[in-house]
């Protein structure tokens, strides 16, 4: 068995502390704990390694109708010492700042087949003093949006077949949309925040008459053609109302540069 497969299977099934000695014992000494330690120490398990690991599986399943899904997640590490990797990040899921490792992943999906093809660990390598609070803070020298575009560009460079890019409103900047549309000639379905401004007609856009999306009385589950401020092309906009786990109501706004998209295609 490949060492990486063995090690990841061990992590998945282990419900106590995972150690090299524990893995060696589990396989009755077939692999010594020193061999496990050397593998972890000298293997550069980065995004490039991941791509070579999954490439053959992707090639077997790929089709032109694939989608790239990009999202970030935070692995909570509240009791681990703070450093540039394990530090404080804002969690959209929890609505507050949490301490942990922030991971940005890129996955490709073909029908029911889905695999990660790249990732970036958010590295807050710059330490600075917050002017207002006088407290020490951290930030990344490379923004999350730059990493987002880098993962998409790497997928293109690796000749990964896909039609759409899917992402939440954290990545709904005009720069990201313009790059996907104008430079890559791909389609996207991306969330936008309720304070984004748009025009309902091309004439309004040219005249600078923009309105915040939350101030529009948009019918739910109907795709509208609109003009986002800062973009030189129209998009389809969908408003979706949903229930949160706590019983409150939330509103999701999605936009796509695929002008043939119906409401069902934007939000199946």
Structural class by helix and strand composition: alpha+beta
Radius of gyration: 22 Å
What is the number of independent domains? Answer: 3
Count of runs of 4 or more consecutive helical residues? 8
* Helix content class: 25-40%
> What's the story with the biggest beta sheet?
11 strands, mixed
The chain-level mean pLDDT equals 92
Q: Give start-end ranges of low-pLDDT stretches.
A: none
The counted number of beta strands is: 13
- Mass-distribution shape: globular
Order of helices and strands: HHHHEEEEEEHEHEEHEEEEH
Percent of residues in β-strands: 25-35%
What is the CA–CA distance across the termini?
39 Å
Task: Provide keyphrases for this structure.
alpha+beta; 13 strands; two-stranded antiparallel ribbon; 268 residues
């Amino acid at each position: 068995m490949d060492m990486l497969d063995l090690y990841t299977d061990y992590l998945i099934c282990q419900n106590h502390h995972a150690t090299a000695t524990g893995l060696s014992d589990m396989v009755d000494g077939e692999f010594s704990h020193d061999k496990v330690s050397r593998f972890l120490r000298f293997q550069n398990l980065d995004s490039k390694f991941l791509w070579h690991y999954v490439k053959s599986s992707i090639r077997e399943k790929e089709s032109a109708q694939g989608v790239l899904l990009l999202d970030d997640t935070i692995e909570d590490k509240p009791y681990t010492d703070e450093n540039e990797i394990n530090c404080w990040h804002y969690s959209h899921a929890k609505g507050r700042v949490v301490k942990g490792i922030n991971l940005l992943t890129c996955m490709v999906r073909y029908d029911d087949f889905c695999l990660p093809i790249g990732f970036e660990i958010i590295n807050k390598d710059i330490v600075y003093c917050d002017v207002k609070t006088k407290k020490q803070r951290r930030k990344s020298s490379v923004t999350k949006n730059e990493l987002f575009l880098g993962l998409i560009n790497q997928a293109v460079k690796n000749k990964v077949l896909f039609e759409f890019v899917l992402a939440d409103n954290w990545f709904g900047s005009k720069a990201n949309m313009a790059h996907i549309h104008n430079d890559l000639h791909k389609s996207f379905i991306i969330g936008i925040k309720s304070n984004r401004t748009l025009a309902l007609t091309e004439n309004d856009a040219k005249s600078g008459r923009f309105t915040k999306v939350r101030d529009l009385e948009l019918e739910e589950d109907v795709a509208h053609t609109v003009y986002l401020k800062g973009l030189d092309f129209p998009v389809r906009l969908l408003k979706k109302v949903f229930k949160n786990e706590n019983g409150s109501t939330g509103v999701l706004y999605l936009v796509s540069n695929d002008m043939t998209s119906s409401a069902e295609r934007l939000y199946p």
